[in-house]
Amino acid sequence: MAYTLNAAATTVASEEELFDFIFSRVDTLDPDSIAEAAPVLAAYANDPALVARTMARSLRSILDGEPPPFVAPQCYVIARRKHVMIRANVWSPLKQTGALRKNEERAYSYDTAHDHNFHFLTVGYFGSGYRTHIAEIDPAELTGAIGDSARILDSEVTTLPKGKIMLYRAHRDVHRQAPPDELSISLNVLFNNQSQIAKCQYNFVFEQEFGEERARILSYTSASIHSRLSMLAEMAVLVGGDELTPLFADVVDSTLLPPRMRLMCLDGLRDDQDAYRGALERLYADDCAMVRDHASKVLQTLQ
Fold it and tell me: Are the beta carbons of 219 and 226 closer than 8 angstroms?
């Protein structure tokens, strides 16, 4: 289950102090180690001028012709060091009706259950916070195919008011957010480890199946780096040519890259049947169930 961490702050920590603590004291692959950064994050969020100051800095950069720091309409980057990012998320009550309301829901990712392919800490900075339904699953139960499902092992409905800190674990904690009662802001610290971001990020639907609560994969999350890399691979295969084709086998064999990206590049080898079959035979024993299952099915058709 996503951790709720008790860490009240009476002092203020700087951005440098937060990054220094993370890079000197935290194993960013270990959720328990990440949780130890909660007191420093609480002190960082205890600065009432933090968001206003960073927004002013962003506006000055935009006026100077720099690109805006937004990664989504309601989400902007405060700072980034190596694989660790600090960002602010704005959460607003829904104001529109009809089709415009649907656009608002999509912009804020409201009412869409999803996981993340990175661990992250989040703290309520301003307002009463969004409401969220959190479910814990075992990612080992998923192969990654659309329609696949995993048992919900535990769940809760909670909020993220000012000062509350939570830790979400990659692939294990699935949450569905609902609009807050008032404008709210949260601060997130994201740990984008390469071994995690190579894995899929999903949208889910919570449902009952034979009296058991399950989370079923509805779609792939389009905004994730996984989906962007997969789109790049799809375009590369469509373009083809002497410069791209030799790279497809390297992508297929790289276990650090997303499974969908690897399988799309596998299609780019079809014109060379020896290379295609050789890649399939290697993937037959791949560590990724999604890749392994695909290779097994295709090899059966080639017999």
Answer: no
pLDDT of residue 111: 87
210 CB-contact burial (10 Å; exposed 0-12 / middle 13-18 / buried 19+): exposed
Please state the rounded mean pLDDT for residues 167-194: 93
Same domain, 85 and 203: yes
Give the residue carrying structure tokens 């916070």. Answer: 129
pLDDT for position 89: 92
Check whether residue 38 and residue 168 sit in a common domain.
yes
Cα 184 from Cα 182, distance rounded (Å) = 6
Q: How far apart are CA 257 and CA 290, in angstroms?
A: 13
Please compute the mean of the pLDDT values over residues 16-45 and round it to a whole number.
97
Work out the number of other CB atoms within 10 angstroms of the CB of residue 281: 11
Compute φ and ψ for 45, nearest 5 degrees: -75, -5
Whether 190 and 120 have beta carbons less than 8 Å apart is answered as yes
Q: Which domain holds residue 269?
A: 225-302
